[in-house]
């Protein structure tokens, strides 16, 4: 008899509903406001400097209480003469009697803009101060006071480097969640086979690995596309990417091992033992090594975790359903493959 979870249908339909919801929402929800550039990017202390800020999805003209701040070394400078020239453009002049942390050469400043409609948006390390500050100039610091710190519309976060590719969060990341969970199913049934010698458990373990390799392949392809867009190369020398490749190769070796052993019982037992050790190595290369080495991926190599600065409440409304939907879809594929194999085994037994 097949396990009950391979026969249940409601969760399979749920996966379709969730993925349709993610697909539609993920493509139609716009990005939130963000700063694109500032020109010029350098200034000279002691001289008047005029700047133009360019942004996207902002409301500088129709919004209220538009404010501009510069930030360096934890100190703020308030710009009092900022003027909106369009909904997405601001101009301001900095007399440069206003300088914070003025005792170093080539200070970098974050540019921060706030208004009631767009909340607070920033461009990190956007301005560079050239040269030393004359002794006659004093820092004119201020205490930041804003009426609204959050964007009032429904949008995905605008993030430098990521931009529109942040939508890949709904596809790339769930592939690896799905692969891990399907492999856990394979591990459980490998252990159950070793304790019972039930042929069905070996079938479920093997088919789970087959589907997990599909997850891994899709995860690598979507990851390469994302890496090429954000890091300039489809395969930078990153331990997370290399670990993902090793993890897929480990389970490709599992498939090859099964094909190389003719005896049915021996194949099942050796495969089950291999599967137990394989997932340990998989977790090592995917989760542990990237965390203790330098890695471009968020949450690894000392980088802050993705959820701390990118996964806002709006993104979560689609990210969590995406994870659940993809996991259920791949489990559905496992159940289909198991039923096909089960019918094939029944046919062989009847011949």
Question: Number of helical runs?
Answer: 7
How many angstroms separate the termini? 19 Å
User: What is the overall silhouette?
Assistant: elongated
Q: Summarize the main sheet.
A: 5 strands, mixed
The low-pLDDT segments are: 100-106
Quick one: how many beta strands? 9
Report mean pLDDT, rounded to a whole number.
Answer: 86
| Radius of gyration computed on alpha carbons | 27 Å
Number of structural domains: 2
Topology record:
Blueprint: H1 10-28, E1 34-39, E2 42-43, E3 49-56, E4 67-72, E5 75-79, E6 83-86, E7 89-94, E8 108-115, E9 119-129, H2 172-196, H3 199-230, H4 239-260, H5 264-292, H6 306-309, H7 313-350
Helix pairs in contact: 1-7, 2-3, 2-5, 2-7, 3-4, 3-5, 3-7, 4-5
């Amino acid at each position: 008899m097949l396990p009950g979870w391979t026969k249940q249908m409601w969760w399979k339909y749920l996966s379709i509903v969730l993925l349709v919801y993610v697909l539609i929402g993920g493509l139609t929800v716009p990005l939130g406001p963000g700063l694109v550039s500032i020109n010029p990017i350098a200034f000279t202390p002691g001289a008047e400097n005029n700047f133009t800020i360019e942004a996207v999805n902002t409301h500088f003209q129709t919004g209220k209480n538009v404010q501009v701040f510069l930030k360096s070394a934890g100190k703020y400078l308030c710009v009092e003469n900022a003027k909106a020239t369009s909904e997405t453009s601001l101009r301001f002049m900095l007399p440069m009697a206003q300088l914070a942390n003025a005792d170093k050469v080539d200070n970098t400043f974050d540019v921060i803009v706030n208004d009631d409609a767009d909340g607070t948006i920033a461009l990190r390390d956007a301005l560079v101060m050239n040269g030393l500050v004359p002794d006659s100039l004093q820092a004119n610091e201020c205490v930041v006071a804003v009426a609204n710190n959050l964007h009032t519309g429904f949008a995905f976060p605008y993030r430098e480097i990521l931009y529109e590719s942040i939508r890949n969060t709904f596809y790339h990341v769930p592939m690896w969640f799905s692969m891990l969970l399907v492999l856990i199913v394979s591990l459980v049934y490998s252990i159950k086979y070793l304790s019972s010698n039930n042929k069905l458990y070996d079938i479920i373990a093997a088919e789970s690995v087959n589907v997990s390799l599909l997850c891994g392949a899709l995860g690598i392809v979507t990851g390469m596309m994302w890496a090429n867009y954000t890091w300039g190369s489809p395969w930078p020398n990153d331990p997370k990417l290399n670990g993902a490749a090793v993890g897929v190769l480990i389970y490709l070796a599992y498939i090859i091992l099964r094909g190389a052993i003719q005896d049915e019982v021996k194949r099942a037992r050796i495969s089950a033992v291999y599967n137990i050790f394989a997932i340990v190595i998989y977790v090592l290369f995917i989760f542990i090594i990237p965390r203790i080495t330098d890695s471009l991926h968020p949450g690894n190599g000392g980088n802050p975790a993705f959820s701390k600065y990118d996964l806002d409440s709006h993104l979560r409304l689609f990210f969590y359903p995406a994870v659940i939907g993809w996991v259920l879809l791949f489990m559905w594929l496992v159940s289909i493959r198991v039923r096909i194999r089960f019918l094939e085994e029944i046919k062989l037994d009847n011949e």
